[in-house]
Amino acid sequence: MATESTLRFAAQTDEVTSLLRVVNLVRTGEATTRPEISRVTGLGRGVVTQRVDQAIELGYLADSEFAPSTGGRAARTLRFRSEQGRILIFALGALHMRVGIADLAGQLLDQDQSRWDIAQGPAATMDTALAMMDTLLERQAEVPVWAVAVGLPGPVDFDSGRPVAPPIMPGWNGFDVRRRFEERFDAPVWVDNDVNLLAFSERAHRYQHDDLIYVKIGSGIGAGLLSHGRIHRGANGAAGDIGHVRVSGSDVLCRCGKTGCLEAVAGGWALVRDADAALADGASGYLGRRVQEGASLSPELIARAAEDGDALAISLIQRSARTVGEAIAALVNMFNPGVIVIGGAAAAAGELYLAEVRQRVYELSHPLATRDLQIVASIDDEREPLRGGAELAREELFDVTFPRWFALGRPTVQSALTAA
Known about the structure:
Layout: H1 4-28, H2 34-41, H3 45-58, E1 61-66, E2 76-80, E3 86-92, E4 96-103, E5 108-115, H4 122-138, E6 145-152, E7 156-157, E8 162-163, H5 177-185, E9 189-193, H6 194-205, E10 212-217, E11 221-227, E12 230-231, H7 262-266, H8 268-280, H9 286-292, H10 299-307, H11 311-335, E13 339-343, H12 351-364, H13 367-370, E14 374-377, H14 384-400, H15 402-405, H16 413-417
Parallel strand pairs: 3-6, 6-9, 10-13, 13-14
Antiparallel strand pairs: 1-2, 3-4, 4-5, 7-8, 10-11, 11-12
Helix pairs in contact: 1-3, 2-3, 6-14, 8-11, 10-11, 11-12
Organism: Cnuibacter physcomitrellae
Family: Belongs to the ROK (NagC/XylR) family.
Protein name: Transcriptional regulator
C-alpha cells in the first residue's frame, strides 16, 4: 500500500512533468492557447490554467495576442519568452573562426567571422574568439547567457568536451575547452565536432528529416550522422570521422601519421597538394594563370576553376568526388539515410562534384537504401555553423537537461551538465 509521502512525491512528479510539457508545447508551437494545451495533453481546464500560471511566474511563458475566433470567444495565445536568455556560439574551423549570438528560439541576433589557423593552439584561439564575442556582446542589451556551443574541426569526446587526438589541431589533445567558457560566462557549455553543427542546422532549417548525413569536404573530411532525429556520436564521440577511413590501394601519407586516409586522397589539402604538383610539372590553363597572377592555391580556387572549365581542376574535383562517393556508399548501406548533404570548399564545385558522388553511391549501394535517397549540395551559407550551434544548445537545454534546472528559472553549469 502506498504511503502518504510516496503519493505526495508521485503527485509532485506528475505536476513537474505536466508543467514541462506545457512549456515545451508552447515553445515548439505545437499548442499555443490554453484550450489547445488541454486538447493535446488531456489535462482539465483548471489544471492547464494552473500550469500556465506557474510557467508565467517562472518566466518561461507570457500571454500574447488573441487567436482567431472559431465562432466563440477568441482564446489568448501564449508565447515562449525566447528573449530572456542568450546562446553564444563559437564555430571554430581549420582556417576560419565564426562567433554568434542567438536567442532561445535559435534566431541569430549578431555574428562575426575572421580568418584564423586553428593550429595556433588553444590559448591564442580562445583569446581571439572571446575578444570577438565581447565585441558582439557590447552591441547587445544585457541579457543572461543560458548556454554556450562550441564547434571544433576534429574528434570531440562529447561528455567531457575535450578534443581527442585531432590531426590538424596541435596542442589541443585533451584540452579542457569547457572550463574557459564556463568561467567567462557562468553558463553550461557544449562542445561538438563542427560537422555535427552543420547537420543540426540542416535538420532545423532545411530538411526536417530524421535520418540525414552531412558530409563536409573542406581541408579535411568529416560526416555528421543524424539517426532517428538525433545526432549519432558513437560511444566516445568518434562517429562520422570518415576522413581517416582507409582508401584501398593508397599509400599516401596523411597528416594523422597513417597512410591511405580518405582525406589524404580526396580532401581539400590533398587537392591543393596534387594541383601544386601538376602545375610544377607544367600544367597550364585557368588555374595555372590564376596562380601566376598571385592567387594562393586553395580548395575554393580549385572548385571555382573547375566550374570555369579548367581541365586540371575538373580532373582533381572528379577524382575527389569519386573517392568520397565510395566512402559515402558505405555509410548509405549502414545507415540508410533519407538525405545526404554535401558541403565544404571542394563541394563548392556544385553539380560537377555532386554528379560524381551520386554515380558512385548508386553504383555501390543497395537499391533499397537508395530508393528514396536525396543527395544535395549545402546552401553554402556562412551562418550555418552558427545556426547549428544554436540548435545544439537548444536541444541540450530543452530536450535533454530541462527537468534538471527548470525550477531554477535558468540553467546553471552544475544543473545542466550533471546527470540526473
